[in-house]
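Record 1 of the preview.
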Amino acid sequence: MNRIFAISLFVYVLYGTAMYAQTVEVEKTHELSKRAKRGYLYHVNRNASTGNIDLVFITSQNSRRIKMEIYSFDKDYNLLDQRQEEQEIENNRIKLRLGEADVEIRVKYKEPIVREGISVERNFTGTLVLKRKQVTYEWSTFLQEYSKSVKTLEKLKPKTDEGDKYLLLSSYEDDYTGDAIILATPKNEMGYKRLTLMRYNKNLDLVAKKDIDFPYGMNAFYKSVLTEKSAEDEDIQITKGAFIMLAPSRWSREKAPKEKVNHFEILKFDNHFENIVRVPFQAETALWRIDEDFEHKDSYYFYGLSADTKGKYYDQILNPNKFKSIQIMKYNALENKVDYIANTSLDEMKSKIKTPPSQKRKPVFKGQQFKRKILFVNDRDELVLSGQNFKATKKGIVYQDVISFYFDNKGRLRAMYGIDPIENNKYAKGWGAPQYFLDVSESKQNMYLILTEIDGYDRGDDRLEFYPRIAKISKNDASITDFITMCVKDKKKFYLDKKFPFFNPEPYKTTFIGTTSNGKYLYFGRVKLD
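->
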């Protein structure tokens, strides 16, 4: 069977969303036909009045016609009906009678798109180099998204008005419009004291430029590109601007005083440089490796590992041996200010370690390699960061313990959760456990963590086989419960899709959908979120 889940409206997945059920309400299994088994689940429809569920499997599709198999269940997942349908696709849409209503479903099929643009590179001396390129977008009917391939053409080395070349500091490319946005500094006495924003179009024409001067040298150490949907094609993202984090640099002829090595600046701008915002702030330490950021409401959160540099500049420390803390910052985009920046040491993390009650081991974060899986903000503006320790070997990355951090609305650590995964096979070690957090509960007092355990790999369907374990985290005292394992029934194991593992059939309830390894049997497991 192909990958099973492409659930539409009822999938409730946040950036990091998790769930846990103290009460398993319903578990049901059903045998699928050979056609559905070879196809994939494309749409889930719930009737609001009856609670009945329809699953629409696509069994065959081209640009004009689509074949489907539809399964209808009552609210407790008892089978009511099973039928086949075939329809012409009109304007990327079909209409189906599901339950008591006609439902319009988008079924997109698109021809390849070819665009020209430019790529931004630096040569071995750091000099800015631009190259024209050709980008091809190919549409996947199964994934319902584009993939792209790039071909490089001729190149150009931009120069200042005085004829000096530029050193590339940061950049991003918009493959759909063909534009490239560049932050560079001239190769002259103004190097690092003057930073230049440039925008080039696909013909290598300079269409916008803005110089930004500083009293001493500054270098870029982190970039976050802001995007929006294209007006021509909503399945393609185009850029609209970016954040670039700046830190005092050791490379400038005029360096910042040693006492200011942790005086950073946010540079926020749009693609046309019409609205440039500069927000200075002071970090706890000069070495802050920002790993990621994300937007929530009107704020942006930045997090990453940090370490004491003892007065050294950010770009003076090339290979830190070990990080000693995690630093988090909240930037208020409405008021253009930093609401808070907080640093939590490894010692404080260890003092706040919590584990499921029946778990014997107490794994902790040691400040080394860590792969982020979840980052989200709950309804109390508290930040949850979850991921997995790993080590790099000659054979590749080996994933280890699951570590979750729970911070309050000022970035202070409430708890660190050390979780010992069950599966220890080569696929679990090589891929790491997908995780989700769900900030939904009837009491409004809990969050739920889903840790999916990788049991194996199905080569025929080219998919990882994983099942969920669920635990509850209290917002009141930050405690965590034991995990409950789902997707095991009648001596059969069922495996979730890595992209759409569950959906919400009604408030404060979540249903897992899975299949056996051979795709023959379908599984429903509904849990209540207390």
